[in-house]
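lol forgot to send this yesterday, sorry. struct tokens for the thing we talked abt
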């Protein structure tokens, strides 16, 4: 279902409409990862897409399993003592977005639900697409 016909997430609101990304070049990607002991992280908790206008678009999973898309700068990494730490750093090849660095966004498409708001965001580049969605409360990124 198209998001423009939906209300926003009851907890997080509507966030930003990512249409402004169309025509902008993806310059950098920053991600946050939960690190615990020697375990390898499953995937990023957050990603920030830094475009050619230096705007940072933050994509993450909401506490109610919606997909949050907002304009905000990356936060600082932090320590959670015995629960591990959250590392925030630029990515090179850790997400599907890395394959599209330097490319221009051709289109964006959102999916949503009337009760929970945004569920997915798909960003199209010349060489493919990246889909952002939430699965079991976690941010999931996949390339096509």
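and heres what i got for the seq, position by position
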């Amino acid at each position: 279902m198209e998001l423009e016909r939906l209300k926003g997430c009851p907890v997080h609101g509507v966030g930003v409409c990512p249409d402004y990304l169309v025509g902008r070049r993806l310059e950098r990607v920053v991600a946050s990862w939960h690190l615990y002991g020697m375990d390898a992280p499953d995937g990023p908790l957050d990603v920030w897409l830094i475009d050619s206008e230096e705007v940072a678009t933050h994509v993450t999973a909401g506490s109610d399993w919606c997909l949050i898309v907002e304009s905000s700068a990356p936060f600082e990494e932090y320590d959670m003592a015995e629960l591990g730490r959250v590392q925030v750093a630029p990515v090179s090849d850790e997400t599907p977005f890395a394959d599209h660095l330097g490319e221009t966004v051709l289109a964006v498409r959102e999916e949503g639900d009337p009760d929970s708001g945004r569920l997915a965001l798909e960003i199209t580049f010349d060489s493919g697409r990246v889909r952002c969605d939430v699965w079991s409360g976690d941010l999931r990124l996949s390339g096509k």
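Residues 1-5 have pLDDT under 50 and may be disordered. anyway ping me if u want another try
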